[in-house]
Amino acid sequence: MILRLGRVIPCAVLLAVACWLVTACAVSRSDQETLSLDREWVAEEDALLVEPVVYDPLESINRKFFLFNDRLYFWAFNPTAKAYAAVVPKDVRSAFSHAVGNLIFPVRFCNCLLQGKVRQAGVELGRFSVNTTLGLVGLTDPAADVFGLPPPPAEDLGQSMGVYGVGSGVYLCLPFYGPANLRDAAGLFGDYLITPAFYLTAGNFEAGASYYLTDLVNNLSLNLGEYEKFKEESFDPYVAMRNAYQQNRANEIRDAVSANY
């Protein structure tokens, strides 16, 4: 199950990331060297991006967490999201999603600068300024609707590290979160530290958890049925999810390297 928000990382997710970082570091070098990769190495245009499509020495554990997330989705989050969608109008749910996206502007802006995307950073700054003022703290998107500034591709610290040649490391399926890898899991920490949500909910677990769960359920309510369709079309949903995540991240990093901003 994809429970990825990329927008807010509660204490539970940070704890899961920390646990997996410790677990990944405990994998011996000999185990890594004997790993049978799902596919051969992918030769990218940039030599820095040559890395395995998937590197999963912790597959047996990852599958258990995948099953946990899958059941959590069907037993708890999906029914809640359906009930939420039946009560809250779609326009309100979309407005909330816009506001949360506007709130994590610092993550996108800082990572644009880290990657040398000065023009894209300017677009992010312009969108944030317009949407925070004219868009009622981001509830609407006049930057795109009125001024013709659509949102550029979102950037994060995992992508920034990838641009500078940091490999993805071992694949991880994080409980309560979903697919990740060692590099992206580490990047979650840095991104979270510059989100307003970190400071607004610091020291208040209940507030942080409420914010996370509300955003999660709201996102799911806007994408009902997508996970079910994904599972129906996959022979092995775990492998399909893992490969799709890794390929998507590789594409994002490749595009970040080649983009002209």
What does this structure look like?
- By secondary structure, the chain is mostly helical.
- It has one domain.
- It has helices spanning 11-25, 29-33, 59-87, 90-103, 105-114, 118-133, 142-145, 157-163, 182-193, 196-200, 205-221, 226-232, 237-258, and strands at 171-174, 178-181.
- The chain has a two-stranded antiparallel ribbon with strand order 1-2.
- It is globular and about 50 Å long.
- The chain starts with 10 loop residues before the first helix and ends with a helix.
Which characteristics define this entry?
2 strands, mainly alpha, 261 residues, globular, disordered N terminus, two-stranded antiparallel sheet, single chain, 13 helices
**Outline, from the CA principal axes?**
globular
Which stretches of 5+ consecutive residues score pLDDT under 50?
A: 2-13, 24-52
Q: What summary fits the major beta sheet?
A: 2 strands, antiparallel
Summed up, the helix count is 13
Helix content: 55-70%
Quote the average pLDDT: 84
Strand order of the largest sheet: 1-2
Strand content: under 5%
Q: Report the count of strand segments.
A: 2
Structural class of the secondary structure composition? mainly alpha
**String of helices and strands:** HHHHHHHHEEHHHHH
The domain tally reads 1
Radius of gyration: 19 Å
Distance between the termini: 34 Å
